[in-house]
Amino acid sequence: MIWLVPFATALFLASGLALAYVFGASTVLAFFATDNTRYLAVLPQKIFSHISVFALLSMPLFILAGEIMNRGGITRALIDLSMVIVGRLRGGLGHVNVLSSIFFAGISGSAVADAASLSNTLIPAMKERGYPEVYAGAITAASSIIGPIVPPSIILIFYGAIMQTSVAALFVAGIVPGLLLGSALLGANAFYAWRDDHPRIEKEDRPEPLRAVLVALPAVSLPLIIVGGIVLGWMTPTEAAAVAVFVALIASSFYSGITFDDLRASVARTAKLTGSIFMVLCGIAAFGHLASLERIPQAIAATIAELGLGPVGFMIAMNLLLIVAGMFFEIIMALALVVPLLAPIALENGADPVHLGIVICFNLCVGLVTPPLGGCLMIVSTVAKMKYWALARAVLPFVLIEIVVLLIIIFVPDLTLFLPRAMGLWE
User: Fold this and answer.
1) Domain residue spans of the chain
2) Exposed, middle or buried: residue 7 (CB in 10 Å: 0-12, 13-18, 19+)?
3) pLDDT tens digit string along 323-347?
4) Which of 96, 126, 144, 285 sits at a 20 to 30 Å CA gap from 279?
5) Is residue 80 a contact partner of residue 215, using CB atoms and an 8 Å limit?
């Protein structure tokens, strides 16, 4: 009867059900197919113990802070600050695009929000100044994945909850990989600017430096408050998230302001996202219970041992699987599918939980800009009204650069673990 499970899952997906419901329903069906129905009685307890994690309280608060800041008119301030820093360089707007994504990452923590916001603003400006449309779209999509790597990051909180790993350590561990990715994309843009003679931003088009810095201070203060408070031990990640909401409300008042309707929409959006994420967590708990009953991780580990992959071979195989998963699934769903099965085996092979979390999340983010179903590619294509496959071809060189950065992170774990260890957040 087990063959019915993938068949039913395909039918559920074709029906248009949300992935969280598909995942949960397929798992419950698998209990029947594997003759484990007697264990369904303890499933509510397993689910509750899985989601009763203090660190998860920070997730809806970080989502709310990002929603408030996104609706509070901060995008223009971050772009102006980026223009002051890198606008004078050749290919200035391309550099501004990447640097804005780095700043934006510390506020929204969402690749999709980054891609949507900057597509509206920077792609038309780049086209107006002579950049090819597909290049403007490609660098916008490629740089948007910095968002989930640099703290605060919703997917790192999600991973920390699944693996019972310190969210503070994961946040700090994401700083160097995020900056390394940003530097690599700035370097790639510099090469294309030299090769294709992209323009600088003329002095008269750049904002006045002192004013741009002062205006951007409330926006850039948010990630500093969050990370600084956690690192110095003043706040837990959950307390930092609450402070982030308060600072977001104050910062928004410096810009276009946030109306009651905006605030209501932010809360509604937060409730919707939080509910969908917790539904996925419930499905993960159910699947994890079934996997332990059927000893699925042990079976996978035995297969790997028979293949003789070893720790390095397994890490490479896992990353190939993650890239494929990232092409087709939302990051939260891909984490739900992959982490409970493969992460314990990676840990048995000597992987560090924090390093593994950054590698997994980075890898899945690359999937957001990888054809055929890259989420950020679709957002940029829709917002900028450009042909999807032309954009997909243009982004491939940036995807290769991101894969190289991923390989560096995989094979040099100290790049990820140095800061958490130096700050006493991880051993």
Assistant:
1) 36-422
2) exposed
3) 777 776 667 777 777 787 788 888 8
4) 144
5) yes
